[in-house]
Design brief:
The complex is a heterodimer of chains A (137) and B (137).
Chain A lengths: L1 E2 L1 H21 L2 H15 L4 H9 L8 E2 L1 H23 L2 H21 L3 H12 L10
Antiparallel strand pairs in A: 1-2
Helix pairs in contact in A: 1-2, 1-3, 1-5, 2-4, 4-5, 4-6
Chain B lengths: L1 H23 L3 E3 L7 H4 L7 E7 L6 H14 L3 E7 L4 H6 L7 E6 L4 E6 L4 H11 L4
Parallel strand pairs in B: 2-3
Antiparallel strand pairs in B: 1-5, 2-4, 4-5
Classes of the chains: A mainly alpha (137), B alpha+beta (137).
Chain lengths: 137, 137
């Protein structure tokens, strides 16, 4: 499966804006919405990518492997779920730290094209050698 | 209010990380010279030098790195390019302290690691590293 890198970058930029808004407003509803977006992104149904496709009709110059960004969306999902749990239970430090971690990853992707979630993969595998993660095509 | 400060701090940290990464990514460094055998690599050493690339499925710049190294090994006679799936060789990953993919090692004809680059290296840097690894070229 191939991904349009422009759509990924666009999605990361919107994610950055949404997560920054969550931190400023403290809205658990907005974070819940972003959590759903992460889950859809991990399932390769990213609404942000679909929005990009609707707005930009031209074909990408080159495409890239869809597995790294999908995995990264899964990492984002974990942080968003933890952040959401923090907001809903009123454990503010947990909510702020987890949401900020997701914001950091989204910002690095949007501004610099670095995929922090992807880079975490090998480190996670080094720590958990027994876990074999499913690589779905 | 705290949320706003968290956003600003996160974006500042992200900018710092991003700029450092842009400057360091793929830079070729000298190493302490551990030796790898053909058995370690799972394939024969190059006649004059070997380019070893560690990759994972969830790695965006691995494909571009593969292209660069394949180009270089075609360009310079006696240089072979070996790609290792980091996940299936976690023993080697730990032994060589590989934290990220792609990581590129430049081996001399005896299999001694003379250079190491974490992140996607530039073609010119790989050629320069090879020139150092293969003095008679």
């Amino acid at each position: 499966m191939r991904a349009d890198p422009r759509a990924l970058r666009f999605g990361a930029a919107i994610t950055t804006l949404v997560l920054a808004s969550v931190l400023v407003t403290g809205s658990s509803w907005l974070l819940a919405a972003q959590t759903v977006v992460f889950a859809l992104g991990a399932a390769w149904r990213s609404p942000y990518a679909m929005l990009f496709k609707a707005l930009v009709r031209s074909a990408p110059k080159e495409t890239e492997d869809a597995r790294p960004p999908r995995f990264a969306q899964g990492v984002g999902l974990v942080f968003a779920v933890v952040g959401l749990a923090g907001y809903l239970t009123g454990i503010t430090p947990l909510a702020l730290v987890a949401t900020a971690a997701a914001l950091l990853a989204a910002f690095l992707n949007a501004a610099f094209g670095f995929c922090l979630g992807c880079e975490m993969y090998l480190l996670i595998r080094r720590l958990l050698p027994a876990a074999k993660m499913e690589v779905s095509q | 209010m705290t949320g706003l400060w968290v956003v600003l701090a996160t974006l500042a940290l992200g900018t710092l990380i991003g700029v450092i990464r842009l400057r360091r990514d793929g830079r070729v460094r000298d190493t302490d010279g551990e030796r790898l055998s053909a058995a370690d690599l799972g394939s024969g050493l190059g006649e004059r030098a070997t380019l070893v690339q560690f990759s994972t499925a969830f790695c965006q710049p691995c494909r571009a790195t593969r292209r660069i190294l394949a180009d270089v090994s075609e360009l310079v006679p006696g240089v072979s390019h070996v790609e290792i799936d980091a996940e299936s060789r976690l023993d080697l990953v730990r032994r060589l302290e590989i934290m990220r993919t792609p990581t590129v090692l430049v081996l001399d004809r005896a299999g001694v690691i003379v250079k190491k680059a974490a992140g996607q290296p530039r073609k010119a840097d790989v050629l320069a590293a090879l020139a150092a690894a293969v003095p008679e070229s």
